[in-house]
Each structure stands twice: as structure tokens, then as C-alpha cells.
Amino acid sequence: MTTSVQLQHRLELLSQPSNRNALAQGLRGIERETLRVNANGRLNVSSHPETLGATLTHPQITTDYSESLLEFITPAEHNAATALKKLDDIHRFVYSKLDGQMLWSQSMPCVLPSEAEIPIAWYGTSHIGMLKHVYRRGLALRYGKAMQCIAGIHYNYSLSENIWAVLQKDAGDQGSAQNFQSESYVATIRNFLRYSWLLMYLFGASPALSKDFLRDRAHNLEQLSDDTLYLPYATSLRMSDLGYQNNAQDGLVPPYNTLMEYMRNLSKAVRKPYPAYEALGTKRDGEWVQINTNVLQIENEFYATIRPKRVIRSGERPVEALCDRGVQYIEVRCMDIDPFEPVGISLQTTRFLDAFLLFCALNDSPLTHEAEGHANTENFARAVKQGRRPDLMLNRNGQDITLQAWGLELIEQIAPVAALLDAQDGGSAFADSLAVQKDKLLHPEHTPSARVLAAIQANGGSFNAFATAQSTVLADAFRARPLNAAQQAVFEQSVEASLIEQAEMESTQTGDFDGFIEDYRSRTSQQICCDE
């Protein structure tokens, strides 16, 4: 497949010496979720260790849904290699505090205790901390706790504002810089949704799961062993309807072509009552159990494979930030934990993500519609459940095409983007990553999902046996590489600072929580820029 006229033109434009350096000024950030487990691979249900700091205020170490589900957040860096180095440092510090516990190396959970025993994350008694906790109580009521224990990698990606300025000038766009940048990110997202099935094939790493996880839910999985269920050609059960699913969200955000469409749909969902949640109520015995009884409690409850984002200010809602200041970056949310990588993702993978996302940003991105949205969803669903099936067919513009053929064509289209990045970076890392991904398309047995399945089969067909053994290997490797004294001291200082900051928030706040949460909820209806 030939390179589109727009893509070729923009690549030539950005390859000019005056523009190429701006490619290095974008930002990359990585968020990694991981369960704390005991040496036997069972969930550790103790409180988040205070020695890791306050989860409300520590900038790099927090919790996601559960006290047992850690989340590590790197600063935004110009090079993903730097972000990965900092992610590695976080892991090494955390291991200095785990006292015999270890980090689960998989996206799908370990054997979980009863729902009642899975601890919801606690963020202290400040109003904002209680809001985060009540939100998670609502998630437990709506979806159950087990689903919230799934872990993943989030990859945050932005291009330099200088790049957008160059592209805006070249396009002859006379509008505001903020609007051009925001709508360009939305166009990037449209392309991402067209092609993200490829990421699931190349990087999906959850073809099997613990039988215990489904808690007697209906399913179409096959039995691999007494304790393990799987699908023989699956790539990412985490991203299938067995993982993140929410019937209340079906059709919630239809295919969108503008940031305004996205914000309006999301704002409506946070205001739209949902009968099943209304039946649960917001309080029980005087205690808040969910923020509201609407389709979404807050915007972040919307499960999406990618989101337009803007760094929010304290107490600010995500849609408020987007309305006020536009899109700053995109958050890719569909990446599985790679159990063979110590921090869950490799530098080689980030190099491909950078080339893939730049391709999505620079290439033609026609406006989308409902029919294409359904096709994109179906292609993604086929890739996560049957991605390695020989001659699996996808739908491209109404025509059948094999996943392998379309994937190889995309690799060819992305190649000149990788070449531009290599020219800027000096070397061949981006082209090398493309070569590895092409090999996976030609040899499905080289995909992470196939390697995971082979490793499970080598461990008696038991997901839990493989995952526990692999987690132990990685834990031992981290413990063998402790931070030096200076690095350790920096982390210790950040722990102390976070504890002090949280204590100050709790001691200086005014008003009661009921008033705080009512004010927070009322601001949803005041999103004037999102109202029709």
C-alpha cells in the first residue's frame, strides 16, 4: 500500500532541519498497574504500606482500585527510554519496602479472595481523598471488585506544540492554536480506533486467566486445566468482554469527530440517571456508597481504549479542563502488562508505539460515523479473542481482509514514519522495532500471547503456576538490584513529603463532605461549553 499524499507531505515537512528537532520535544509518560501478592501468588490484602508514602499525594506511587493494586506513574519525559528508567527505579524502591510480598507480573489477576475481602483503596479523610474512595465504592457496587483488579499499562503521548504550529501553518488554518491542536488529537484518535486491533495482536499478553476470576459468570472460554480457562487464539482477554465491560456504557460515546462531541456525550453520561444504579442509592446507613446514580459517576468511569487528556488542577473535573484548555495529550489504555518484561513494557514496544501514534497523527483521518464505529469495535473484538487464528478476517471499508495482510500493509505505511524518527534520534531503533512486529505478523508464535500460552502449558497448563513463578523471577531480579544510597534517599524524601502534604490537607480543610460532594456533582451541570 502506498503512502497517502498527506502523510508523505507532512513527513517531508517535518524532515526539514528547522522542524525535525521538534519531534524530540514531545512527551511520553508511562503508568503501570500491578497487584501486591504474597510469595504463594495470593492477593495481599493488607493496607498500602505507609513506607511507600501517601497514595493521595505521592506523585509516582499510588493505588488504583484497591489497596492491593499499586499504580506507578513516571514523569512526562521527552524520551520513553528516560521514562522507562524512572519506572525501573520506582520498582526497585518499592521492592525495598515490600517485606516478602511481590508484584504480580500479569494483567489478569491472581487467585482472588471473596469480594468482601478485596480492600477498596483508601486515601485518607480529606474531602478529595474521600471522593476517590466513594467513587471506588461505587465501582464495587456497579461491576464487582474482581474486574477492578485487572492491571494494564497506560501510555501517555504528546507531540510538541511546535509541531502542531508547523502543521497548522502548512494547512493554512486561521483558527486558534488550541482548537487546531485539540481537533488534530481527535483526528489521531479516529485513526487509532481504526487500527488499534493491530496493537492487540502485537502486544496482547492475556490469552488465559484463572478460573476463579469469572465468579460463575457465563463465558465461552475453553478449559486448559483444572484452574485455568483460555481461548486458543486469544491475544488479550483483558480487553475482551470478559475484562472491562459495562452494559450501561454501550453506545455511551458514539464515534465522534470533534472534541465538542466527545465532551457533550461524556457530560451527558455523568448527568443521565440509570435505573439500576438509582435502585442502589447514594447512601446506606448514612454512608456514601457512590457519587451519584447516573450512567457514570465521573468522567474517568468511561472505559475507553484511548482518551483525549489535559492535566487537571486540584479538584477540577476532566471535562472542565478540556473545555477550558483543550487537549494536551492522548492516553493509550489498551496495552497489556508484558509478563516477560520487568516493568511490564519494553523500550522496543514504546518505539513502535511512538511510530504508530505519529502515523495516526500525520495520516489522513476521514470523519467517522456509526457504521465505521461498529466495524472498528468488531475488528478489535476479533483481534482480542481470535487474533492468532490463521486467516482471521477483518472488515476494512466494508471489504474482508485478513488480519495478517492488513497488518503487513500498515507496517509498510508506518515505515517512513519510523525512518523519520530514526533520522531525528540517530540510529535504527524505530525501524528495528517495526521489523520485530513484522516478524510477529508472519510468525504468530512469536507474539506475547503465544509465548504466554506456551509458558502456561509448560507449567502444567496452570495460569496461576506460571504467573507465580514468573512474578518470583522478576521479584528476585529487582531485589538483586537495589537503588544506591542517593537514589533511595530521594524516594524516602518524596514519601515523607507526601505524608506531610496529605496530613496538611486533612487538617486545613473546611466544610463537610456532604457539601463538598454536592458541589462536585453540581459542577457537571455547569459545563456550559458542553451543553447544547
What does this structure look like?
Helix content is 46%, strand content 11%. It is α+β, with helices and mostly antiparallel strands. It has a single domain, classed as Creatine Kinase, Chain A, domain 2. Strands 1, 2, 3, 4, 5, 11 and 12 form a 7-stranded antiparallel sheet that branches. A 3-stranded antiparallel sheet has the order 6-8-7, with helices on one face. A hairpin with a 5-residue loop joins strand 2 and strand 3. Helix 5 crosses helix 6 (177-195), helix 6 packs across helix 11 (347-362) and helix 7 runs parallel beside helix 12. The longest helix has 24 residues, at 485-508. The chain is globular. The two termini are 42 Å apart. The mean pLDDT is 94.
Quick structural summary:
The chain has 532 residues and is α+β, with helices and mostly antiparallel strands.
Number of continuous helical runs: 18
The portion of residues forming beta strands comes to: 5-15%
Q: How is the CATH topology named?
A: Creatine Kinase, Chain A, domain 2
Contiguous low-pLDDT stretches (5 residues minimum) are none
Q: Please tell me the total number of domains.
A: 1
Instruction: Indicate the overall shape.
Output: globular
The helicity comes to: 40-55%
Q: How many angstroms separate the termini?
A: 42 Å
Largest sheet: 7 strands, antiparallel
Radius of gyration: 23 Å
Pathway: Sulfur metabolism; glutathione biosynthesis; glutathione from L-cysteine and L-glutamate: step 1/2
InterPro entries: Gln_synth/guanido_kin_cat_dom (IPR014746), Glu_cys_ligase (IPR007370), Glut_cys_ligase (IPR006334)
Domain Glutamate--cysteine ligase: 11-381
Enzyme class: ligase
